[in-house]
Amino acid sequence: MNAVEVGKVGVENNQIEEIRLEIMREHELRSNDPEWDKAFREAEWKQLVILNEAAKFVISPYGAGVDYYNAENLSEKALAIASAIPAERAATKGYGLAKKLFEEAAALYKSNKLTSAGKKVEQAVVELQRGRTNQWSQLANKPQANSIYRFDNGFQYTTDAQKRVKEVSADLRIDPWNRNAYQQRIAGGSCRQESDCGGHLIASIFGGPGEAINLVPMDAKLNGAGGEWYKLEQQWKKTLQAGGKVQVKIQPIYSGNSKRPESFVINQVINDVKLDSQTLKNTSTGN
C-alpha cells in the first residue's frame, strides 16, 4: 500500500470514527434526557418547513415533485431537490452552487446536523430565483443580518447587523418582473414617512425582486415620474434598449437604527465607463 492509499484509508477511518461517536452521543442524549427526543423532532419539523420552501422554488419550475414527496427523510428530500435541477441549469453559476449546497445539506441531515444543514438549504434558496406572485420567497422577505443574498439573475444584496440592505450590485437588463404590492405598502414599517412609497432599489423592469430585500421607504416624488431616481432608471433603460451595458452598485445610507435610508450612493458603469459616484438624498428633490 503506497502513501496515498494509506492516507486515504486514514481519512476514511477518521470519518467512520466521527460517525460512530456521533451515534454514541445521540444514544446518550436519548437515554439521559427524555425531552431531547421531543426537541429533536421539533427541530426536524422546522427543517422540513425550510425544505418545503426550497422545493417550492425548484420543483415547481422543473417538476420531479414525486421524488421529493416520496422521500422518507430530510436527507432524501434534499437530494431530491438537488436532482430536480436540470444539468443545463446546474452548469450556470447560481444553480450549480445551489445544487452543490443541497447535496451538502443532504449529507449533514444524514448526520443529524440539522442547523448546519438548514443553513446550507437557506443559502441555496437565495442562490436560486426571485419569487413570483403567490410564490414569494419568505427568506428574501425576511433577510437575516450580515448576510449576502445572490439571486438567479446575479443581483447581490448585502445586509448589515440590523438586517437592512447596505449594498446591492447588479448587471441590469430589460427583464420585467412581478411586483409585490403588499411588501411595497409595508416597506420601512414605523420608520416610513407619509410622503414615502415602497421604492425598489433595482426597478422591476430590470428584474428587481418583488420581495422586501429589494424595497425601502423612498420619497414618492423622488421615485415617481420626473423624480431624480426615476430619471436615473430611465437613463439606464434607454442605454439597455440601445444595446448598451449598465452595471450599478447602490448603497442605502441610514441614520442610527432607522430602516429608512436618508440617502443613496449610486455608482454606475455605463458601457464599460465608470461614472462619478452620485448621491441622492431621500427627499422629494434628491438634494
Describe the structure.
This protein is of the alpha+beta class and 287 residues long. The chain folds into two domains: 94 residues, no CATH class; 144 residues, Extracellular Endonuclease, subunit A (Extracellular Endonuclease, Chain A). The protein is built from eleven helices and nine strands. The strands form two sheets. Strands 1, 2, 3, 6, 7, 8 and 9 form a seven-stranded antiparallel sheet that branches. The protein has a two-stranded antiparallel sheet with strand order 4-5. A hairpin with a 5-residue loop joins strand 2 and strand 3. Helix 2 runs parallel beside helix 4, helix 4 runs antiparallel to helix 6 and helix 6 packs antiparallel against helix 7. The relative contact order is 0.08. The N terminus is likely disordered. It holds the Pfam family Endonuclea_NS_2. This is Type VII secretion system protein EssD-like domain-containing protein.
The top level CATH class name of the largest domain: Alpha Beta
User: Helix segment count?
Assistant: 11
What shape does the CA trace take? Answer: globular
Report low-confidence residues grouped into runs of 5 or more: 2-13
CATH topology of the largest domain: Extracellular Endonuclease, Chain A
The value of Rg in angstroms is: 23 Å
Major sheet size, sense and barrel closure: 7 strands, antiparallel
CATH superfamily placement of the largest domain: Extracellular Endonuclease, subunit A
Distance between the termini: 74 Å
- In total, the number of domains comes to 2
Topology, number of strands = 9
- State the secondary-structure class: alpha+beta
Output mean pLDDT: 83
Shape-level CATH architecture of the largest domain: 3-Layer(aba) Sandwich
What is the ordering of alpha helices and beta strands? HHHHHHHHEEEHEEHHEEEE
Beta-strand fraction estimate = 15-25%
Helix content: 40-55%
Protein name: Type VII secretion system protein EssD-like domain-containing protein
Organism: Moraxella nonliquefaciens
InterPro entries: DNA/RNA_non-sp_Endonuclease_sf, Endonuclea_NS_2
